[in-house]
Amino acid sequence: MATTIFREMWLPKNETCESSIDLQRFLHYSLVPSVAIIIVLSCLEKRSRERPIDEKWPFLRRRCGILIPLDFVEAFANRWSLAFAFGATASKVMILFSGGCLPLQVPRWAQVPVILVCSMEVGLSSYPFFICLSTLSQITGALLGFLYTGSWFIVIVLNIAQCPHGQVVGKYEKILFYWPSLLCLVFLLSRFSHILMKTLWVRLRQDLPSEETSFLKIHQAQYVQQLMRKPPRLPLQKSWIQRKVYEWDPDFRFPSRMICMAVLALICLYLFVMIEVYVGKLVLLTLNILEENFETLIAAQNTSEVLASSVQRLKEFIDVTEDVWIFTTFTACLTSVSYVVHILACYRKHMKRLWAGKKQFLPLATCKLSHSVAAIARYSGWQIAYLVWGYLIVHIVQCLFGVMLMYILVLPIKHGQAIEAVKSLGPGILTVAIVVGLMVLQTVTATRFFLQPKISPDDKEKPLALDNRKAFHNFNYFFFFYNVLLGLSACLYRLLCSVVVGAWLIARIDRTIMPKGYEAADMDFRVSKKARTRWLLLYTLLNNPSLSALRKPK
């Protein structure tokens, strides 16, 4: 059923159309109004202090300041508006993907600079979305932002209306790729309209109190008040969603960079899944052609039963892999979406621990200040990239396990070979049971016969002191050869678990996939060996003050 729906949706149709609006060309043309908006708002932006240029040109009055698209550190205003502004840029990224950012034949060494220029072009074209939201000149910013956003919305809608199909995915390609950006543009239009009407209303009604900016945010003050209250005597009953998934905290607000990261990660994940579906369509077409060629060969020639059975197995493998791939697409998507929610929950938990002065969960070695500042700039982009590539890796791993499960359990039952499958699995299950039983036997025997009795009847465990030493040495000798063979199986099991857990957690930056002692190889753990050494030196000198006099001077 899933295969039939997939083929009806994604197999190419004989529907061709061409739109008179070239979005890639409009992207180039949009740089002119974008630069104009930047110049206008920059002229209205005031600088924090006077410069020598103000003495030379007094009419500036500290004007012509540097615009800030958004604060990546501690901004809490316009969080969702900035997040949807990032979502609106997804359409421009898709323009580069569909039209190609290498219009001319350039040498391979020049491709990276050209791609950098193309990305800078997309950033410059999207810059008005952010500065119109963040500028202090709200009337001008809202008016210019509404006109600029509206022009992009109209152009994209006209392009889709003239030709909703495409040459890559096929039917309704542009609708599938551009509807997230259109939704974000509609949100920005409503937001700019709200800012414009609200600001005009405040200007007309001058008796209304103006909003004052405070150093202490409201939610931060509420959090401190909540800490000062007495905790309730009986703990509140929490639902399963609050205990296992996510619990809303009214006294905590995520900064804009976390909200932007979450929204843009979900949109990029959706676009990546659409691209993956397209690649799956190409692979499906290739496999279907291969299958039809084999069937034609069998029908045209008097082939042997071995070749016919091989073709039948190939057809079954194609069908099984296709169904499992489609099913695991949904499970991998749910896993990635749950990671986004979990990342936000972990961020809130870690921030509350830092506010309380608890730093035990951090690496022992702190980073240099320059590394921390650079990490702030890298985090959002790296997290989105890790989430997208992590989805692909998790999808592949889930698909492999799904195909194994189908061949081990489902297909034998489908072909009426359930008893034979159980018989084939029986020796393996029995072997595992014997291995686990012997491991338990070694532990129980060592605890019961080779440890001295409890010192006090109230002790929970026996002391770590050997008893029956001669029997213990003989026990170790004879089990030594068996443990060598058992260690091989344990080594393979350990390697398999490392691969599965590492692939599962590749999208999680808050957890390192490297073993203890090798965290420095993980670029996202950011451990400084110099800082670790200094910390150990400080710890040693604090516990041994007399060593300070013996240290070598600089």
UniProtKB/TrEMBL annotation:
Key word Transmembrane helix present: yes
InterPro entries hit by this protein: STRA6-like (IPR026612)
Keywords: Cell membrane, Membrane, Receptor, Transmembrane, Transmembrane helix, Transport
GO cellular-component term (any): plasma membrane
GO molecular function (one): signaling receptor activity
Localization: Cell membrane
GO terms classed as biological process: vitamin A import into cell
Recorded topology in the membrane: Multi-pass membrane protein
Transmembrane segments: 109-130, 142-161, 176-196, 258-279, 324-348, 386-413, 425-451, 479-506
PANTHER family for the chain: COILED-COIL DOMAIN-CONTAINING PROTEIN 180 (PTHR21444), STIMULATED BY RETINOIC ACID GENE 6 PROTEIN-LIKE (PTHR21444:SF17)
Listed name of the protein: Stimulated by retinoic acid gene 6 protein-like isoform X3
Source organism of the structure: Eublepharis macularius
